[in-house]
Amino acid sequence: MDSRDWIRDGLRAVLSGLLAIPLAVLNLPLFGLSVAALVLSIVPGLGMLALPGVTLLVRARADLARRLAGRAGVPIRRPYLPPPERAIVGGWRYYKWIVTDPATWRDLAWLVPGAVAGVALGALTLALPVYGLEGVLLIPLWISLGTDWYGYGAIWPIETVGEGFLSLPQGALILSVGIAVAPYLRRFDAHFGRLFLGPTRNAELRLRVSELTVTRADTVDAQAAELRRIERDLHDGAQVRLVSLGMTIGLAEEMVEGDPAGARKLLAEARETSSAALADLRHLVRGIHPPVLAERGLDGAVRALALAVPIPTTVETALPGRLDTPVESAAYFAVAEALANATRHSFARTAQVELWHTGSSLVMRVSDDGLGGADPSGGSGLRGIERRLAAFDGTMSLSSPPGGPTVVTMELPCASSSPKTTPSSGTG
Question: In this protein, which residues make up the domain named Histidine kinase/HSP90-like ATPase (predicted)?
Answer without folding.
Answer: 330-414
